[in-house]
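#help-structures

NK: newbie question. if I give both the sequence and a SMILES, will the prediction place the ligand too? trying with 2-acetamido-2-deoxy-beta-D-glucopyranose
OV: yes, paste both and it writes out the complex. here, I ran yours:
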Amino acid sequence: MLVATITVFALLRVQGALAQASKTTNIPRWCGKPYKSGSPNINPGGQLTQPQPSPNPLLYVQIEPRHSIYVSSEESATFIVDAALSDYYGSPYSNSTQVLGSSTPEPFSDLYFSILAESIDQVLVTNSVRINTTNNLFDFNIAQLTPQFDPYDIVLYGASSDGNQTYSTATKLFYLPDKQPGSITKIDNLNGNLLYRNNATNNTFVPFFAFGFYTSWGGYLEPSLENLKAYYDLGYSAVHPIPSFSDNLTTVLDYMDELNLMFQYDMRGTYTNLTSVKEQVNLVKDYSSLLAWYTADEPDGNQDPLNATTLAYETIGQIDKYHPVGLVLNCQNYHFEEYSAGADYLMEDAYPIGINATWSKWGTLCNATYGDCGCDNCLGELQDVSNRIDDIAEYQEWLGQWSKPIWAVPQSFYGEGYWDRNPTAEETWVMNQLALNHGAKSIMLWAFPTVDELATANSQQSKVLTKSPVLEFVTGGQPTRLSVKAFESLDVSYWIVGQQALVSIVNLEYADASSAIKIVLPFPASSIVSSPWGNVPWELSEKTLNVQTLDALVTSLVILHL
Ligand SMILES: *[C@@H]1O[C@H](CO)[C@@H](O)[C@H](O)[C@H]1NC(C)=O
Ligand SMILES: *[C@@H]1O[C@H](CO)[C@@H](O)[C@H](O)[C@H]1NC(C)=O
Ligand SMILES: *[C@@H]1O[C@H](CO)[C@@H](O)[C@H](O)[C@H]1NC(C)=O
Ligand SMILES: *[C@@H]1O[C@H](CO)[C@@H](O)[C@H](O)[C@H]1NC(C)=O
Ligand SMILES: *[C@@H]1O[C@H](CO)[C@@H](O)[C@H](O)[C@H]1NC(C)=O
Ligand SMILES: *[C@@H]1O[C@H](CO)[C@@H](O)[C@H](O)[C@H]1NC(C)=O
Ligand SMILES: *[C@@H]1O[C@H](CO)[C@@H](O)[C@H](O)[C@H]1NC(C)=O
Ligand SMILES: *[C@@H]1O[C@H](CO)[C@@H](O)[C@H](O)[C@H]1NC(C)=O
Ligand SMILES: *[C@@H]1O[C@H](CO)[C@@H](O)[C@H](O)[C@H]1NC(C)=O
Ligand SMILES: *[C@@H]1O[C@H](CO)[C@@H](O)[C@H](O)[C@H]1NC(C)=O
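OV: that's the protein plus ligand as structure tokens.
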């Protein structure tokens, strides 16, 4: 009797839980958050948090091929080896080591290692790195390997000089048979930039910064090739057609080949149908203007299945490993690990202009677990763009991952009840250059056609960022952030390549600066070479860039000789 009672009681509880579950799964959500007036408040979960730090620093040894893929026409390749002291990842590390034949311990300051291709037991590199250093480069002759479609499993075995402390780590190396016809696109895992090769580059890899727009298919590209030509003539380096497409897709892609206008091929809406993904990849993979694949559009915002991006990624890779795969994340922090797993580079689309960041069109407030104000956990400020890029970089650190490049999708539209107005030309320049300062490796705005003012403003910036001399800096290194004392609303970064530095200055204030500006540089500079963007009359004295005033929302690029 008692048993039966318990069983019935348990059954009722299970039914109750099921009813509760179906009730909560039917609630409309965005980024997992209920957002409609009257919906219960339910923490969506899926937030990534900072890992618990280890009481003692760990030695985190990592290895990554410099390039995401190599092809058989290349003979030289490079590994990047990190031996970082980390609070989160790695193996225990004791800073002393015993030298053979000596009774006094010495500092464990160098890690001795070998890098092997496991399956063939072939040593590719034997060398050492200083402890607490990253981005150590080791060239090797990749032509000693046989080109193949499967990756080589690479293992690094490292140890202290006494052999007492050992460390190992693994990665995959792609050495693919050369590809003809069409393009090949790589990611440089050191600087995060793209490199591509096709008939228009004479089949040599060239560094590339994609700057362009998500572009309407039915409303722009499809009706006439003249529209694509007009877009191309504005000086954009890339284009992202928005599906769904029609039968004359190949006519338009053929024309992109002719123009050498690199495109990102979008499979939103179909990327969870792997049969469709296969068909599309087979149709498009040999275009010489194919830059990259794009699968999910805001999978986190839509709460797509958590494995969907990875399944599409694997499907694409089985057919075409010659182009990287990207996607855009919409939420600030919702199942980042799962959704980002299915991509080689990550895009963000925080749209802060003209939003009400605290009260939504759905009649609710917006906070970390509730509501949809159009820009997840945003403040409605220009810095929402750079904050989102910083977040994505931080999550990758928390996961202990090799950083995937981040691209920005800045706002160039208004409407939908969330966005009151378009950005101004100055705001568009600020958002783009902020993205650059925080490490964005390409810019694809939403969306084209846009108002003439923004089509022109972005065209001007594209012509500068995607070409020499700026291109060599933004693809030749990572930006270093510079905080300017007494001018906290200046966002400044610099890149050093060879004997020159590019300094990028953004004024986040909507008002002119009233006093003279001084930017103290952390490196010696001898002269100003040029100012490829903006009209700020900088003067250089000693290690300081000086100017009497700065306009509201000013953007400036200046190249210095070291
Ligand atoms: C290294 O290992 C040997 C044998 O395990 C041990 O005797 C020695 O004390 C160790 N040296 C140090 C510095 O830990
Ligand atoms: C090794 O660690 C000890 C204890 O933390 C510290 O006192 C010493 O300075 C360190 N030595 C080196 C060479 O880093
Ligand atoms: C490791 O490097 C960082 C950054 O260069 C430095 O601040 C830190 O003191 C170093 N740690 C050790 C134990 O040498
Ligand atoms: C590259 O090949 C494509 C496709 O065959 C062709 O349309 C294009 O004109 C070629 N470009 C150059 C620069 O040869
Ligand atoms: C293209 O590459 C070939 C082979 O490397 C070279 O002989 C030729 O001069 C190059 N042409 C151009 C236009 O760069
Ligand atoms: C696409 O097809 C439509 C209908 O056949 C035609 O009007 C249009 O010109 C085509 N577009 C292009 C770019 O060929
Ligand atoms: C998946 O794509 C294939 C190929 O395009 C199509 O035939 C099929 O109807 C699609 N399935 C679904 C469920 O949409
Ligand atoms: C992907 O996840 C869904 C649940 O969201 C599950 O039904 C499906 O079996 C998974 N597919 C694979 C191949 O793991
Ligand atoms: C957001 O909307 C609320 C409610 O209508 C209003 O009180 C508030 O002033 C608005 N904030 C902004 C920045 O527009
Ligand atoms: C968000 O707002 C909801 C609805 O007012 C409230 O129940 C919830 O506690 C808030 N969450 C946070 C994290 O403040």
